[in-house]
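One such shown below:
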Amino acid sequence: MKLWTPDRVYFEPTAKNTAVGQRVLDYCKSKSIPILQTTSHNQVRDLPGKDEKEKYASAKKTLVVGTKRSMKFDVCKPSAHYQFSLMTNCPGSCEYCYLFSTQGKKPYVRVYVNLDDIFDTVEKHIEKRLPHATMFEAASTGDPLAVEHITGTLKDTIQHFGTLDKGRLRVVTKYANVDALLNVKHNGHTRFRFSINSEYVTKNFEHNVHSLDARFKAANKVGEAGFPLGFIIAPIMIHENWREEYKELLEKLYEALPSKRNSTITFELIQHRFTMNAKNVIEERFPNTKLEMNPEERTKKWGKYGRTKYVYPKEDINEVKGYIEGLIKKLFSRSHIQYFT
């Protein structure tokens, strides 16, 4: 799969006057991509398309380069102490994406140029928790590896965390373009995780992301480069032949990691959930979706900010949990399952 190339790039005022902005500008010029101006990302309107589906496709090919204004870092349980953003949204088009709940009306890709401000805020949060180490998640609102060939900000961030005695970074991706990161001096401070799933899920719901095989190969490269390694199986779905497919997934992963099987690999397991807002957006943008979102067959769960989520019934998901955790422990004896949610 070719790396993402936007059809149009908007720059907010002063964004070009930064190292990251200059990288993006150079990339646009090399690809002859139209460069536009906007006073703010909120002013990006009138994207091509006669209906919601076409406008969504146009937004997914639109890049906005700007400044991260809010330096308030949200708590990021259970994966980290805090989260921060190098970008918002993603070039990928996964039908189940949880960002539909929060970014549904603004699906264009945004990247941030003011890394110094972000890094200063990181260090202030670290100071508050001394002498303990502080963990940060950098991929909660988008997949920074998807645009790394344009921005270079993930490399900058990994290098910076390599210098922090008490700072640790976590990043998760569905992409495989890791070669530019393999020689970064990370000092073991960044855990690289790859999002993986059953064939049914990846085939039907994951679009414009790298294949599972490509992710497996990238994971092996990352592990060989000394990065702490992890995998997120999400969203776990109960579908026909789910037992066989999740077993096959983990067996393929085992075969793809010949030198890392006995390492302390982490696993994070997240069941499929949806909000009614996300359901409405998904059905509008993917009118033929096979995604199962019947609230009558689910259990209500109160999520962040009081948002109601719909998850699998407890009896069903407990069966899935026991089965997948058993497979992981059998194949990866030294692995650590961090949570199932």
Observations:
- The chain has a mean pLDDT of 93.
- The domain at 68-340 is CATH 3.80.30.30 (pyruvate-formate lyase- activating enzyme).
